[in-house]
Amino acid sequence: MVTVEDFKYVLTLWNGHKIPGLIERDIKVDLESNKIIAIAGSRRSGKTYVMFQCMNDLLKKGVKKDNILYINFENERLVGITAINLDDLLIAHRELFNSDGIMYVFLDEIQIVENWDKWVRKIYDTGKYRVIVTGSSSELLSSEIATSLAGRNLTYIVYPFSFKEYVDAQGLKINKLQKYSFEKGVILKAMNDFLEFGSFPEIAMTSSISRKLEILSSYFDAIFFKDIVRRYGIRDVGDLNIFLKILSSSYASYFSSVKLFNYFKSTGRKISRVTLLNFLDYSRSVFLVSLLEKYEKSVRKRISMQSKTYIIDTGISRLFSDIDKGRALENAVFIELSRRKESIESINYFKIKSGKEVDFIVGGKNGEIIQVSYEVSLLSTRSRETSALVEAAKGLGLKSGKIITYDYEGEELIDGILIHYIPFWAWALYDTKQK
Predict the structure, then answer these.
(1) DSSP assignment of 120-148, as one string?
(2) What share of residues in the chain are helix, strand, coil (percent, to 5)?
(3) What end-to-end distance do the CA atoms of the chain give, in Å?
(4) 3-state SS record for 25-60
(5) Percent of the chain whose predicted confidence (pLDDT) is above 90
(6) What CA–CA distance (Å, rounded) separates 2 from 114?
(7) What pLDDT, in 10s, does the model give residues 37-67?
(8) Whether the predicted pLDDT of 174 surpasses 90
(9) Does pLDDT of 299 surpass 80?
């Protein structure tokens, strides 16, 4: 059982550490909002450092450190903790520190604590606490939690580094004029590394390829054992292991439970389609993958159509297969679009009656259509990509479309539709539609 003394030990350790210097993340948390702040995202994406960024902002505004409480529930002294123990956390803090006024309570990896939401709601309702929580599970986003918190929560999703954050972390100074200079090679090398090894913060700060792969392997193991096996009580981990490796290698493509079922059957492994779909839900719940639905006006049709899967970070895939640069680029675009997405916006793929497909339609019928093509120098490739965009634009009543490329830039007017070709790095760093 976790005691007051356990909390005192953990809080004393925290108080003895200086809040570390940080690479500024693009995410801006509204600490003045009278809401419970939930910071969610995949393991090792930087949620804790976003918390630290919030703490530094508070200190700059004159909030005393004694009024900032931080605790990470993955500490070994807190094993077995439940919501019943959490009142002791506040008792321990009052005994150790001289706080007055509003308390800012930062609770890291809160999903470990059973019934945490009820306790958080209780202290929030007193009006004396501003509560900020993080978690590696979509429990922080679920309808059950939203119902329990009764509209009191404001949720932010933390992704691995954006390309902008990635180049900043490496100390690279990139400007628009570099595309005309010999320094362009620096940009392309950074982009190649970004696509091949991903952009988890620790990876971005590591130069050794073997070390990158070791770190990524440890992340996968943590997601596998801690976030999925332990949380969902899975006994036959062999099937799950195979499933996750296939899923991680098949990003930016359609998900088919039928094909997976037939594959498992061909290898002599007995597994149901229901179990495979459950595995997919578990992978989504821990932010390993996201699903992209087809654009349809009817919700029923949209749900019934086949979805595409995208992985949170292509570095995970690098553990199991070589990187397909075309799919990696598409995946990077999807993650960046997800990062930028406003709450009212939608992201879908678009299927035209002719059978052609546009990779992304953002914001519905009157929004933006985006194609991703790693290489468009070949006339046949460019024609295939532009014909889908032109047909889609005409059908939707749009005047333009966008093709995000590896390194090609330009514009082209086709049948009255303006096609913009934009290199990924330029789009990611300087596109005018910002988050």
Answers:
(1) HHHHHTTTSEEEEEEESSGGGTSHHHHHH
(2) 50, 20, 35
(3) 44
(4) CCCCCCCCCCCEEEEEECCCCCHHHHHHHHHHHHHH
(5) 74
(6) 13
(7) 999 999 999 999 999 999 999 999 999 999 9
(8) no
(9) no
Strand order in the sheet with 103-108: 68-72, 103-108, 129-135, 36-41, 153-158
- C-alpha torsion angle, residues 90, 94, 99, 101 (rounded to 10): 50
Burial 140-152 (b: 16+ CB within 10 A, else e): bbeeebbebbeeb
Give the E-state strand segments of 101-237 in sequence order: 103-108, 129-135, 153-158
Burial class (CB in 10 A: 0-12, 13-18, 19+), 335: buried
Coil/strand/helix, residue 435: coil
Q: Name the pLDDT band for 435 (thresholds 50, 70, 90).
A: very low
- Residues 6 or more apart whose Cβ sits within 8 Å of residue 189: none
Q: Cα–Cα distances in Å, from 113 out to 96, 154, 176?
A: 23, 20, 47
Burial of 20 (0-12, 13-18, 19+ CB in 10 A): exposed
Domain ranges of the chain: 4-158, 178-430
> DSSP letter string over 6-32?
HHHHHHHHHHTSPPPP-PPPS----TT
d(CA 118, CA 87) in angstroms, rounded, equals 12
CATH 3.40.910.10 is right for the domain spanning 4-158: no
**Hey, which residues does 310 pair with through a beta bridge?**
290
Which amino acid, one-letter code, is at 281?
D
Structure tokens at 256: 């088919």
Contact of 28 with 53, CB cutoff 8 Å: no
> Which tokens belong to 351?
């299927």
Q: Assess contact for 326 and 420: CB atoms under 8 A.
A: no
Given this model, what pLDDT does residue 153 score?
Answer: 86
- Confidence at residue 381, expressed as pLDDT on a 0 to 100 scale: 83
Residue 59 amino acid letter: L
Backbone angles phi, psi at 362, to 5 degrees: -110, 125
Question: Whole-model pTM above 0.85?
Answer: yes
In sequence order, which residues have a C-beta less than 8 Å from that of residue 328 and are 6 or more positions away? 195, 196, 251, 252, 314, 317
Q: Which residue's entry shows tokens 């570099």?
A: 178
